[in-house]
Design a protein that fits this description.
Blueprint (H helix, E strand, L loop, with lengths): L13 E3 L5 E3 L22 H11 L4 H46 L2 H17 L1
Antiparallel strand pairs: 1-2
Helix pairs in contact: 1-2
Length: 127
């Protein structure tokens, strides 16, 4: 009579991990160094991305997103250019006014002084 010798079933070994839990030895991670710490970095979105996020969150299509991303910085640039032009024109008017005032003050003649005195006398008489 022949006896069939079947191989003995292999029993997986159970190990205890450093954190106290048990696991099968064949399912262990490559190197277990304890619980992992996840570092999460949260960054604030740039101003032009805010429009994009609002548009995406409200279900608006890609056209609105593209318009917000394209026209947002374009509008800021145009308004900045307009403000710079207005500031330059105001400075130019100030300098020209100061120049005219200085020239008129320095070129004043005795006749101009007499005219100023006559106007002052006429104002006093009206009162």
């Amino acid at each position: 009579m022949t006896v069939n010798h079947l191989p003995e079933p292999v029993r997986p070994t159970v190990v205890q991990l450093p954190d106290g839990t048990h696991a099968y030895a064949d399912n262990l991670p490559a190197t277990y160094a304890g619980p992992q710490v996840v570092h999460q970095h949260i960054h604030q979105a740039a101003p032009d991305r805010t429009v994009q996020r609002i548009a995406l969150g409200s279900g608006v299509g890609a056209g609105a997103v593209a318009a917000g991303v394209y026209f947002g910085p374009l509008l800021i640039g145009a308004l900045t250019a307009i403000a710079a032009n207005i500031a330059f024109l105001a400075f130019l008017a100030l300098v020209l006014g100061w120049g005219v005032h200085t020239v008129v003050k320095s070129v004043g003649s005795p006749e101009a002084g007499a005219a100023v005195k006559n106007v002052a006398k006429a104002r006093r008489r009206r009162r």
